[in-house]
C-alpha cells in the first residue's frame, strides 16, 4: 500500500497554504508565486489520483476530504485576491480624490498650515485633548518657539515663525530668508503680575515693537483716555523700530493675551543684512526708471550705493505736513497715496421778480486721491525748491494704501549728488506730474477720464473686429467651453450655498441644545 501524504509533505503543504494565503497578487513577482502554488496543487491532485485505485475505503474517504479542503482553500485564495484587488483599487481612488480635495482646500487658504477636520473627529474627547498639544496647533507651537532661547531654535522652527509673520501686515513684502532671521529673534513676553500688563509707558524710550499674537492691547493717552484698541495679528509701536523717540502713549494688555516682542537692534541688523544682498537688484530697478536716463551714470551709481529701504504697512504715514524735510524716496513696491482737498462750488439761481434773481452757492469739500505706484519719486519738492521757497517742512501728507517698500537717501546726500541743473529737472518733473492749481487738477482728472474712455473704445473695437474675422465654428467651440466654465461655477456656488445652509442648521441646533441643557 502506497502512502498518500507523508508528514513531511503535509507540513510543506500547510506552510505553502499559510504563506500564499496572505499574499496580495499585484506585482509580477507575486503573480509568479500564485502560479507556482496552482501548479503545486494540480501536481498534488494528479499524484493523489494515481494512487487512488490502491486505497482502502477509509483511505479514499480521507483522501477525498483532504482534496476538498485543498480545493476550498484554493477558491478562498482566489476570491480573497480578487477582493483585495478591488478594495485596493477603490482605496487608491478614494485616496487620490481625498488628496485632491485636501490639496485644493489647503492651497486655497492664505496659510498652508490650516486644515479643517471632520465634525465626527472634533467631537471625540481624545481629539480635544490632542488639540491642546503644541505639535497639533501651529499657534501653540509658535508661542513655544518664541519662549525658547534664540540660539536653540533650528531652521524648521524659524520657518514656522516666518510663515506666520508672512501673513501679517508690514511683513508681507519681506523675503522669506529675512523672516526666518526675524523668527529666530522674536521673544515672548511673560505676563505673570499686574506690572507686566503695562508694555510701555508714555514718555519712555522706544526700543521695541509689539506683535499681538492673540488678545488685545489698549492705547492710553498721557491724560488717561482710551485712544485705540489693537487686536490679534496686529502690531503696535512700529516707530520704535526706526528711531528711539519717546513713546507717545501707554500700552496696556491683559493676562489672556499672547504678546511677541521685536527689538529695534535685531530688526535693524536683519535689515542691513538684507540691504547688502538686495542692493544689486535695487540698482537694476533704478535703471528701469526713464527719468534717470538723462543723468550722468556715475551719479546714479553713487545714489544706488547709498540707498536704504523702508517697509510700510497699510495706513502707515511716510511723512505728514509739518514734518522736517529728511529724505528723497523712490517707491519700489506697493501703492502710496496723497489726498488733495479741494472746494467745489455749485451755483443755482431763480427769478423772484421781473428783473430780480436770487442766487445760492453751495461749497463742498472733496478729497481727490493721487496715487504713487512703483517707480514713483517722492519727497523731493521741498528739497529742490529750497532756494526759491525756503521750505523747511513738508507741505503734503503721504500714506501707504497697502503694504509697500520704498527706497530712500537722506536730504544731505541728495544735494551732494545732484547739482543745480539736476534739481531743475526734478522741478520740471514735479510741474509736469503734479497739478499746481485747482483748474489744472480738474483738467488733469478730466483728461485721465477721457484717456480711459478712449482706451476702452479701442479695446472694444479690437475685440469686435477680431470676432468678425473668426470662423463661426471656432466661436461656437469657445462658447461651449465658456458655457461649461459658467455651469461649473454655478454648481460650485450651489454646493457652497448648500454647505452654508447645513452649517447654519448645525449652529442653530447647537444653540438650541445649549439652551435646553
UniProtKB/TrEMBL annotation:
Domain spans labelled Cyclic nucleotide-binding = 170-288, 291-336
Under CDD domains, the record lists: CAP_ED
Q: Name one GO molecular function term.
A: cAMP binding
Q: Name one Pfam family in it.
A: cNMP_binding
PROSITE patterns, from UniProt?
CNMP_BINDING_1, CNMP_BINDING_3
Q: Which InterPro entries does this chain map to?
A: cAMP-dep_PK_reg_su-like, cNMP-bd_CS, cNMP-bd_dom
Any GO CC annotation of this UniProt entry: cytosol
- Put simply, this protein is called Cyclic nucleotide-binding domain-containing protein
